[in-house]
């Protein structure tokens, strides 16, 4: 639990941490606002999200490499954007199948009649696979970073599971805490109009920094273990 507590305090470290956190929150808030544009809003949301995603990945990669410095500044924008794209694509690779299964199940559910009974297994399967994907993703990103930013490295499932097993208890605690925190943020976003969007955006950025710090260090510990 000590590493998790340290990760929660990390975003408040270093000179200028307030402006660094605020800027990330503003970016996500801007993405939320642009996402409200009909039909094409989601495209703008994704494009804006690449920068804070890349920022969190930078923290993750630094801690994975043992460089546990203070909260970094917003610089090297091109690299942040590029790495944000990488993180997005890897995440998409993990969540595409469960998302399709869930969407199909939801469509059958809302179709009514007998299709409801067909839709339920798809929904359950989509949620279940999605949770597994969410569980594997931090270590997958570690393999990606250690594999010279190779996409194929992020899908070496046997090696990923093996490394997770070495730190299984703390990894599970971090995953569960991340999942619960994200669900709380989603609740705030959906139940408090406008204000909830802002709280969700700033909370999501804070959570991404905490998760990057925690799993970066934990994945490094796992990869340093020799069997």
Q: What does the overall shape look like?
A: globular
What is the terminal separation in angstroms? 25 Å
Largest β sheet strand count, sense and barrel closure: none
Low-confidence stretches: none
- The tally of helices reads 8
Structural class computed from helices and strand pairing = mainly alpha
Radius of gyration: 18 Å
**Count of strand segments:** 0
How much of the residues is beta strand, in percent? under 5%
Order of helices and strands: HHHHHHHH
Helix content: over 70%
Report mean pLDDT, rounded to a whole number: 91
| Count of spatially separate domains | 1
| Oligomeric state of the chains in view | single chain
List the helices and strands and how they pair.
Layout (H helix, E strand, L loop, with lengths): L1 H8 L7 H19 L5 H24 L12 H35 L3 H32 L10 H10 L1 H24 L3 H30 L3
Helix pairs in contact: 1-8, 2-3, 2-8, 3-4, 3-8, 4-5, 5-6, 7-8
